[in-house]
Amino acid sequence: MPPKKKTKKTTKKNPEKTLQSESVIKAQSDRIDLRRRMRDTEQKLHHERQDHRDVNCDLSRQYKTMQAELTSKVERLEKEVSKLKEELALCQEELRKERRQREQLKEEKDATVADLQHKLDNMDADYEKILHNSLDSLTSQLSVARQRWDDKSTTLHQNYKELLSEFGLNALDI
Q1: Does residue 17 carry a pLDDT above 80?
Q2: How far is CA 138 from the centre of its chain?
Q3: For the purposes of burial, counting CB atoms within 10 Å of the CB of 25, is it exposed (0-12), middle (13-18) or buried (19 or more)?
């Protein structure tokens, strides 16, 4: 035989039992609902923890990647700084050499100019002496030549005077 279905009549007979039964049903329903909510909450908590672990792992990975990149960048920049310091030192040494060479060339040029000026002064003095000597010699030669011409002219005048006097003429009258 099939079991009898409860009817409302029985609930009317014992209202206290019905209330108890409804309370039990409500309590069971609340318990089931609380279990379901607890299970949902546990699942949410599990998902949140998993998400937290995933985020934590991702952040750790990003941190390690950034740290490696920064370490690499720092090493690269340190190498570049070292290289630039070496280049600077070489440039400064080259600049010092160039300055020394320029100073040496200036000193050599000044010495050459001074030497040439000295030679020019000596040549000037030598040419002045040569010119004075030449002029003195020319003056002396002219003086000697004049003296000869004077002597010759005096001799010629004297000869012509005598010739004129032989012819009976006075040289002062002519």
Answers
A1: no
A2: 72
A3: exposed
pLDDT at 7: 47
Give 15's pLDDT tier (boundaries 50, 70, 90): low
| Token pair recorded at residue 62 | 């990003």
Q: How far apart are CA 97 and CA 136, in angstroms?
A: 57
DSSP readout, the chain? -PPPPP-HHHHHH-HHHHHHHHHHHHHHHHHHHHHHHHHHHHHHHHHHHHHHHHHHHHHHHHHHHHHHHHHHHHHHHHHHHHHHHHHHHHHHHHHHHHHHHHHHHHHHHHHHHHHHHHHHHHHHHHHHHHHHHHHHHHHHHHHHHHHHHHHHHHHHHHHHHHHHHHTT--TTT-
Can you read off the two tokens belonging to residue 4? Answer: 């009898």
* More confidently predicted of 135 and 21: 135
The answer to whether the pTM exceeds 0.85 is no
